[in-house]
């Protein structure tokens, strides 16, 4: 479990009736001041947006990426070639000279292209071109040399399985506790169940069914399999490979040590065996992101599995980091395009429903317990169980340590249709809001290949699954708990910056778990806003009013409100005390309590006793008068002072 999932929340809840909280309690009429009730945080007056780039959109042109046309693919005619076009900053393939109008000689051959000197490049008919950036491309191959010469046996084994198995079968283990039931429901099979002793001399191909059995015979899970297979439409990497003609790393350097068990898999026709882009990574990431769409409860884990398979291609010696980066970019574009396609709308909806219904049935869970089950593994049983490790590894695999070679200040760019990738992860956000989530979480500019004109290269799907990264303008969220899943409860774990304002409406629970610095304030007009970190509310005011409520707490530390804290009637402030400071509220600006309920809970084994006085809220400056104070297991007498609120406990 991640740390953010074990924190004790300070909950701010707007409730239609204070009677909704049943506990022993008491109150008094001590009102220290008659200062005016503050107004809600100011309205910024605008809503952030992520405009669609004014370039040909991959989601509109995916059909141009035809495997059968691979030999003739060009930048102008093929969307798959175009999406990774920034590779041309580093490498000029012979194909580009042909596209530019270089004429063939009388015998039909094209002019020779002079290769820049690169020690170890064999003259064996390897797809050719000219090195334009020897520093980056040299580092690209050296990375593989280092990785393969320091490879552990466990890494070699993982590389073998990810090479020889169907990619759809391989990535399924990113489902953690759901892996076995997923494979059973999909009726997935593989023939690669071990590494044969003669694998160094004999090539073994997977005779399993990769993604599983479709709906023609699999009535309970077949639409899930159908959707996975549909994601392969127009998703061949062959046109890009043929266009870029960039060799695999072991052909650039004899110091690359191909995994001995994969030597039989080396192509005997180098001229048609390009390394850029990685087909294995493209297919694996495509399958992983589709599974993340279908089971967003495992979104980040599946995205991590997709990148892990890409790194295993490097450890195998079969691909370079840039090959894998290109494959990841292409996969995101192809997945989004097929999910975005109106022709697939019914299938993706049916597959999502079928995935949840079947998996919940097989795991004996419900809509309220499924997410917990999906994360019930430990680091021993689920290698993606540790959130912090996944986050760190995902960030590393996004760039593989390449330095930024261009401006690091270019504005974020979000491709047309990319928001569909977050459609099930944030069902309570609009398509425009999901685009802003992608915009505010993508990585900085300047990395090789990744600054494509549409923006696929900079998308950080792990960070995007943690919600907004920046609040610009008004961020209004409306959740409906009756719909279950993420509509009922969700957590945003990014460190949110910006000058914008958050407004929560509806009936769901939104948890903020980052080290936030946004300054526009938080307003709760419905539902539950929960602070799962000390600085969850950023640096602005917190205003709890309307027809809803708030709940707050932090693990081991008080929750801080740097600005004003205001609570109105028919709302609830819920404090979960752990006995070590966690759950207390510290208000730096004016503290105003104009009615409502205070509910005190005890967590983490903390058990106070009758006669204890508990300090709850630090703050001053305004009226302080709760209508009701409920303390679990006790009667409580409130004590209002010029420095805050405490309660004295007595037996209930």
Question: Any key phrases for this structure?
Answer:
about 650 residues, alpha/beta, Vanadium-containing Chloroperoxidase, domain 1, 2 domains, ten-stranded mixed β-sheet, eight-stranded mixed β-sheet, 18 helices, 20 strands, elongated, disordered N terminus, Autotransporter-associated beta strand protein
Quick gist of this model?
By secondary structure, this protein is α/β, with parallel strands linked by helices. The chain folds into two domains: about 55-195 and about 200-440, Vanadium-containing Chloroperoxidase, domain 1; about 465-650, no CATH class. The protein is built from 18 helices and 20 strands.
Can you describe what's shown?
There is one protein chain. Strands 4, 6, 8, 10, 12, 13, 15, 17, 19 and 20 form a ten-stranded mixed beta sheet that branches. Strands 1, 5, 7, 9, 11, 14, 16 and 18 form an eight-stranded mixed beta sheet that branches. The model is unreliable at 1-8, 15-29 and 96-127 (pLDDT under 50). This protein has 18 helices and 20 strands. It is an alpha/beta fold. The chain has helices at 58-61, 79-82, 94-99, 134-149, 153-164, 167-171, 179-186, 222-230, 238-244, 249-252, 279-294, 299-315, 321-340, 345-363, 370-374, 387-399, 431-441, 461-464, and strands at residues 10-14, 91-93, 129-131, 474-479, 489-492, 501-506, 509-512, 522-524, 527-531, 542-544, 549-552, 559-561, 565-567, 572-577, 585-594, 597-602, 613-625, 628-631, 634-641, 644-651. Helix 12 (299-315) packs antiparallel against helix 13 (321-340) and helix 12 crosses helix 16 (387-399). Helices cover 28% and strands 16% of the residues. The protein has two domains: 56-194 and 202-438, Vanadium-containing Chloroperoxidase, domain 1, CATH 1.20.144; 467-648, no CATH class. It starts with 9 loop residues before the first strand and ends with a strand. One of its GO terms (cellular component) is outer membrane-bounded periplasmic space. Keywords: Signal. InterPro entries: Acid_Pase_classA_bac (IPR001011), Autotrns_rpt (IPR013425), PAP2/HPO (IPR000326), PAP2/HPO_sf (IPR036938). Residues 228-337 form the Phosphatidic acid phosphatase type 2/haloperoxidase domain. This is Autotransporter-associated beta strand protein.
């Amino acid at each position: 479990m991640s740390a953010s999932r074990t924190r004790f929340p300070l909950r701010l809840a707007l409730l239609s009736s204070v009677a909704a909280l049943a506990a022993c309690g008491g109150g008094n009429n001590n009102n220290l001041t008659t200062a005016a009730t503050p107004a809600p945080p100011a309205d910024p007056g605008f809503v952030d947006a992520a405009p669609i780039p004014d370039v040909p959109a991959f989601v509109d042109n995916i059909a141009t990426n035809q495997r059968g046309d691979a030999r003739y693919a060009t930048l102008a005619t093929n969307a798959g070639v175009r999406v990774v076009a920034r590779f041309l900053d580093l490498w000029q393939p012979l194909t580009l000279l042909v596209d530019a109008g270089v004429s063939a000689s009388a015998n039909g051959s094209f002019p020779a292209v002079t290769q820049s000197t690169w020690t170890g490049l064999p003259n064996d008919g390897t797809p050719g071109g000219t090195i334009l950036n020897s520093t980056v491309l040299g580092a690209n191959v050296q990375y593989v040399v280092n990785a393969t010469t320091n490879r552990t046996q466990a890494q070699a084994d993982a590389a073998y399985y990810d090479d020889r198995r169907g990619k759809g079968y391989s990535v399924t283990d990113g489902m953690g506790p759901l892996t076995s039931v997923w494979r059973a429901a999909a009726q997935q099979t593989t023939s690669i169940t071990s590494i044969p002793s003669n694998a160094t001399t004999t090539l073994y191909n997977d005779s399993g069914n990769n993604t599983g059995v479709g709906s023609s015979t699999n009535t309970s899970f077949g639409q899930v399999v159908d959707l996975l297979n549909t994601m392969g439409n127009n998703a061949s990497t062959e046109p890009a490979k043929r266009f870029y003609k960039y060799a695999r790393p072991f052909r650039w350097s004899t110091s690359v040590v191909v995994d001995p068990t994969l030597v039989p898999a080396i192509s005997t026709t180098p001229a048609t065996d390009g390394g850029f882009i990685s087909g294995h990574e493209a297919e694996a990431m495509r399958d992983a992101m589709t599974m993340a769409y279908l089971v967003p409860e495992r979104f980040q884990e599946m995205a991590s599995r997709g990148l892990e398979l890409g790194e295993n291609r490097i450890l195998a010696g079969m691909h370079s980091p840039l090959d894998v980066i290109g494959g990841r970019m292409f996969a995101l574009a192809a997945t989004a395009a097929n999910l975005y396609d109106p022709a697939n709308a019914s299938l993706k909806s049916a597959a999502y429903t079928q995935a949840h219904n079947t998996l919940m049935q097989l795991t004996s869970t419900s809509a309220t317990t499924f997410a917990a089950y999906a994360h019930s593994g430990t680091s021993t049983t689920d290698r993606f169980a540790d959130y912090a490790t996944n986050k760190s590894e995902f960030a590393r695999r996004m760039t593989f340590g390449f330095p930024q070679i261009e401006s690091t200040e270019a504005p974020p760019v979000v491709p047309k249709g990319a928001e569909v990738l977050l459609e099930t992860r944030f069902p309570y956000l609009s398509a425009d809001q999901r685009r802003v989530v992608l915009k505010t979480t993508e990585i900085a500019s300047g990395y090789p290949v990744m600054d494509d004109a549409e923006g696929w290269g900079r998308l950080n799907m792990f960070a995007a699954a943690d919600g907004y990264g920046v609040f610009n303008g008004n961020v209004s969220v409306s959740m409906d708990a009756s719909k279950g899943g993420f509509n009922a409860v969700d957590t945003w774990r990014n460190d949110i910056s910006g000058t914008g304002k958050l407004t929560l409406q509806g009936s769901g629970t939104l948890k903020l778990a980052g080290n936030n610095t946004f300054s526009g304030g938080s307003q709760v007009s419905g539902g539950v806003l929960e602070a799962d970190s000390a600085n969850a509310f950023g640096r602005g005011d917190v205003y709890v009013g309307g027809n809803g409520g708030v709940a707050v707490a932090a693990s081991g530390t008080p929750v801080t409100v740097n600005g004003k804290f205001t609570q109105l009637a028919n709302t609830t402030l819920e404090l979960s005390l752990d006995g070590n400071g966690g759950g207390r509220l510290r208000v730096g600006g004016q503290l105003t309590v104009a009615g409502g309920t205070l509910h005190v809970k005890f967590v983490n084994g903390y058990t106070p006793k009758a006669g204890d006085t508990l300090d709850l809220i630090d703050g001053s400056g305004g009226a302080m008068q709760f209508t009701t104070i409920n303390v679990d297991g006790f009667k409580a007498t409130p004590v209002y002072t010029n420095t805050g609120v405490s309660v004295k406990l007595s037996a209930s």
